[in-house]
Amino acid sequence: MLWGTFGIVHISSLIIALVTCIGIFFALKSMNNKARYILLLILSCSGISAIIFNLLTWGSPLEYLPLHMCSITAILLPIVLLTRNNMIGNVLLVWSLGSILAVIFNHSQSNYEILSWTFFFYFVPHILECAVTIYLFAFKYIKLSAKYIPSTLGITTIIYTFVHICNLIINNYCINNNVLDSAGNIIKVNYMYSLQPTVPLMELMWNIIPYQYWYMYVAIVIIAIYLGMIFGIKWLIHKWKYRIV
Fold first, then answer.
1. Are 71 and 146 in contact (CB under 8 A)?
2. In whole angstroms, what is the distance from residue 50 CA to residue 67 CA?
3. Where are the domains of the chain?
4. Reduced to 3 states, what is the DSSP secondary structure of residue 59?
5. What pLDDT digit, counting tens, does each position of 18-31 carry?
6. Which pTM was predicted?
């Protein structure tokens, strides 16, 4: 059975994931601090297992380096839990959103068999990256703070620029050395989609700024608006509670 896009199977998988994550939240809430911490640490490593799976399975490691935002989030998530780093934790508040968008707008993965390991190591880690990030804030492992908005935007821009440079270097190396993928084609990577859009939402941004690398700066603006809304709502809730008291 294929996963599909916005069909019964796809939508059902998202609903099941949501219900499961809510169930995990209440299970975590009922645990003592030590048990909760251990379970969160285990869940936070799901993305790393997916990175290892992809590097070992497809016979083309250059195409599966952990340079997509979801993969970088997967690496940072257990580190944030272990270090309680608020700055990086607030960055993950943005980056984990990409994990959810990846399973909702799953055009490139719609042909996955839902009972395959490929589907499992794509779907489950993406869901857990977002869920565990929310758990970290909900259980006060990380403090949500507006003062980290500039650092979040700055770190995101720096990482994106670094990954774009990696794309150029890897592709140039593969062309010059005739490095082929399993299908016999010269490898061309597009980590963090800095070279070209691959889904309709990115194509809309490309229409605004039709240049590789630069077009994703529309996303940086969207991220700034997203963070502004989050902290604006947080401020309004705090002000409303204060007035009631």
1. no
2. 13
3. 8-244
4. coil
5. 999 999 999 999 99
6. 0.89
